[in-house]
Input
Amino acid sequence: MMMKACAIIVAVLFCTVNANDVKYKDCGSVSGTIESIDITPCPQEPCPFKRSTTINVTVEFTAKVAISSATTKVYGFIAGVKVPFPVPGDACQDMSCPVAAGAKVTYKNHVDVKPEYPNVSVVVQWEVRDQDGKDIFCFNVPVQISN
Output
């Protein structure tokens, strides 16, 4: 019995330590409501994005409208300039489409941090837009790109 209780406590602590829910700023979500955002790895803020790694992004959201198709756009604001990050554009490959209004949805994607990216502080803006071009969700998160 004691061994089982210890295993449960360790499992809970492991999940808590590995959760990377981040603080974010909603930048205009219209067609959905963000429930949570997980960026892995992001053990602290600003999120450390190491060059030559892959960053995984999971967004839990609730759809406010029916969604038949969706696109992803990711940008970095560097010294006030909006620079695109290359990510796959079809968001329906990162979540199940179509989506009914009121449905809870999990969106999973990633961004590759290229080795040629400079060491720089950047605000990343992640947008997923519906078939009408409205943001299903949009969030900003501070990032530090480094070696």
Summary: The two ends are 46 Å apart (CA to CA). Residues 1-19 have pLDDT under 50 and may be disordered. The first helix runs from residue 2 to 18.
